[in-house]
Amino acid sequence: MAEPTPRRNEPRLRPAPLLFEPAEAAGDPEHFFDLESIDDPHALLDRATELTQAFRAAADRALEFQAVAAAQLADPRRFDRLTTAEIAERAEWTEDYAKKMVEFGRDLLSGAEGGGHGHGVSDTL
C-alpha cells in the first residue's frame, strides 16, 4: 500500500461523479462505466480520464478517512483504544504503516479542529 501523501496547500479537485452501475452491468466483466460503448477515441479518452481522476480523488479521500479512524482508534483517551499492531492487523497494514497512518490522522484531526487547511474531516465522524 502506498504511503499517505498529504497535500495541505492544494485545492481538492472536483472530479466527475462516480455512478453506480446496475447489477447486470457490473456482472459483465467487459462492462466498465459504459466505456466499451464509446467509439470515438477523443470521447473515450475524455471519459476515461474523468473516471481516472474520480477514482484517484476517491482513493485519496478514503485514505484520509482511514487515517482519521486509525488516529481515533489509537487515541490514548479511549478506554477501548487499539495498539498500532491491532490497527495494522485490522486494516491489513504493516505496523510501521499503521504508525504513519495514525500520525497522519492526528495531523488531519488537529488541522480540522484548529480551523486547519480545509480537510473537511472532523473528529466527530
Instruction: Please give the count of helices.
Output: 4
User: Which segments are poorly predicted (pLDDT under 50) over 5 or more consecutive residues?
Assistant: 1-6, 116-125
Shape from CA axes? elongated
Quote the average pLDDT: 79
Helix content: 40-55%
Instruction: Please give the radius of gyration in angstroms.
Output: 18 Å
Percentage of β-strand residues: under 5%
By helix and strand content, what is the structural category?
mainly alpha
Distance between the termini: 24 Å
Secondary-structure element pattern, one letter each = HHHH
Q: How many E strands?
A: 0
Major sheet attributes: none
Descriptive terms for the model:
mainly alpha, 4 helices, disordered N terminus, 125 residues
Describe this structure in words.
This protein has 125 residues and is mostly helical. It has 4 helices and no strands. Helix 2 crosses helix 4 and helix 3 crosses helix 4. The two termini are 24 Å apart. The N terminus and C terminus are likely disordered.
Write the layout of secondary structure elements.
Elements: H1 23-26, H2 41-74, H3 84-91, H4 95-113
Helix pairs in contact: 2-4, 3-4
Please provide a brief summary of the model:
52% of the residues lie in helices and 0% in strands. It has 125 residues and is mostly helical.
